[in-house]
Batch of 3 targets.
Target 1
Amino acid sequence: MTDIVQVLEGRIDRKKNNALTITFADGPGEPLGASVQGGGDSGVGKKLGVLFGFKNGGTGTHLYTPVAGEPLCVQSRDQQPTVLTRPDGTAVGQIQRGEVSIGTAADGAEVLRWIDHPQRAATLDAFPLQVLRPDGVVVAELDLVRTLAGWSLGRDLVDATIWWGRAGRPLPIPFLGTSVKVFSPFSAVEHEQLIASCIDMAVGLRPYGTAMRR
């Protein structure tokens, strides 16, 4: 059994202005930060689309504000790589989505890659992925959660001292969030790319791997 060093959850909810939010934590009372749908968009039309419920997630620039560290803009785009920047426009990196999705730093160096989980098929409850380093070492498993039952997937692998999950409540949204089981400590750059991918999938509705495209 692979040792799990961290469980990272991102839970979807809504703000009063109807924008989706995803709040990340790695334990009870241990928030890491939160992202707001379209928080980095400046166009009035885009903001009104969110306000009136025309955009239930999707493309746009989603602003992630961590408890510690610098804010991150995750620009989810159609048929183009996802762009990661600081709010002032400073390049952070990008994620090229595909059968193998590849995240790169601002200098073009590969950081992480995401693939369909080779042992677990997609279900009505979740889309499972593996997260790898460039050398092919699997460093995490990521579930894009679709139903309440999806939060419990893989609980038999998680030590009780780490797991704090709860069922939560159903919401009229495309996904309920993301659940990541981490097998190896992440560097700051890797952690930021992982968070960005969760936002890109759950809020930006961008497909990673092949199962999400069917």
Target 2
Amino acid sequence: MALFWSLDTSLVYILFGLASFFLFMGFYSRPIQPKQKDSYDKTYSSGRQTSSNIRGGETIFDLLSKIFTKQSPYQGNPTSGFSRPAGFVGGKRIAGFIVIAIFVFFFVLVASLSFDSESESFDAIAYYQAAEQNYWAGNYDSAYLNYRKAWKANPDYTEAILGYGNVLAIQSKSDSAMIMFDRALELNPDYREASYAKSLAYYNQQKYSESIHILNDLISNQPDYYDAMLLLGDNYYTQNKYDEAIPWYEKAYQDGQMRSRVICHVMAYIYDTKGDPERAINLYKEALTYDSTVVDIYKRLGELIPTEEGNYYRTQAITLQSQ
């Protein structure tokens, strides 16, 4: 136990069970003093060889052989009227002790394995929660270690596998990240976050056709996945395919209420280039409600609005540039 306790907890329980069993066997096999036979025993035991009262030389196999094969200490037919000898009753008791010892041993073994499994599951959850906190705090090195520990503690922990892959992608280890995303999808083919992460990895690698293919399948199966719609719009926008991009942006903006400075700014720019200044102006203004420090938006609004209102945006642009 001292040598192997640090390797696996189950080894401690196994060795403890064995130690307990052999301690019992050592206690049972200790030398004892022969008992005095009473006159009744002497009268009816004549002509019969009595068994030895010293058990010190017995082995485990001898003991088990006696218990399970020897029904009576007498040879031939027993004399009627005799009560069962004490040795026979003692043998049954010993058999009972051994059966109980074996049962306890296997019970402790199974319980230890179950405890280890629950302990590993608890460790995996704890590591995953720590990794999530590290990830959203931007501590990617710590997140990397904790996601990996969670995944190692539970190889089927899809959330930990996905998190580990996301950190690998941030660290520009695209091939390794793809392996983790595929592993998560192998365990759960309907895991949409893993599909999204894989399409995002393709997008960052400028493999737009692969990313678009995954996103189309994902949206067809889950029509309310608005994050996937935004990424699909980004795939088209990056390739200057504005006509293909704007419907996905609009659907996420209108139906999914996906409102932010970035989406409003991008949509405003698309409508601006398509010759729709009214929509562009409204979206530029909305973008400023999320972030009022973007100089380019003030400049463009100052150009699109020539009236007195436009002076405010032109002034703001000059003020921000001078800071």
Target 3
Amino acid sequence: MHSDRLIAGYRRIAHLSNQELERRLEERPEEIGTKDLAVVAGIASDKIAKYERWGSGETKGRAQ
């Protein structure tokens, strides 16, 4: 699979995971089991950060 498609998928996973986490926190914070969702969002974000070289002074890809 082409790396641009992989990164697009990671962006989607990070976005959806973060939206779901926010929804759960707003609607029923007392019932939330966020560990797995937070891990998925973190992994996807880490992949994007590595690909786009966040913090290195260089950028790759497009800023979101």
